[in-house]
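Can you make up a polypeptide sequence alongside its tokenized fold?
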Amino acid sequence: MTTSHAQNICQFTAVTRSSDQTLADDAFVVLDVENLLFPYFVTRAHPSERREVNPDALARFAQLIARLAGAKRRIVAVGDRRLLPSLMPVAVAHGVRLVPTRPGPDSADLECIRRLLLELPTGCQEVVIGSGDGLFALPAKWLIAQGIQVSVLAAPGHATSAGLSRALRASASRVLATRVHSAA
């Protein structure tokens, strides 16, 4: 990690409904790693080979995880099985559980939804969905009907663009965009 990466600070900015940027202490967080980091992470390799994460993406992932981590928060990061080994050191340092998936359309999304349905802690007050995909709109509506706040964490530049599904944006309690700022 270069010095410039170490000086970056990850912050959330609320872009819809609520200006509150804080997350519940007991929030359950599911992250679609590729959706959140796609513009930054892939060093293209042969499809059968392990995917590498470029240093900028690794720094952004570390900042995001450090900002999300909390004593009571459960964080599950889902992604292509060829990508996750590169993220292991950061995930382990913050207690993030990595869940590998096969490559393919909607594979990580469907696994994130599965984890939401199977692992949602009793009494959880907030779910954070780290993806902009429309597949999460129906689960978001269901969670809100159960009295659980749903915050969508969109990739940088995606909170107000085509990278965030209109259906998901409309279904969420709030949308948070990640911003990476230099500490200097």
Remarks:
- The helical segments are 3-6, 33-41, 55-68, 84-93, 107-119, 137-145, 166-171.
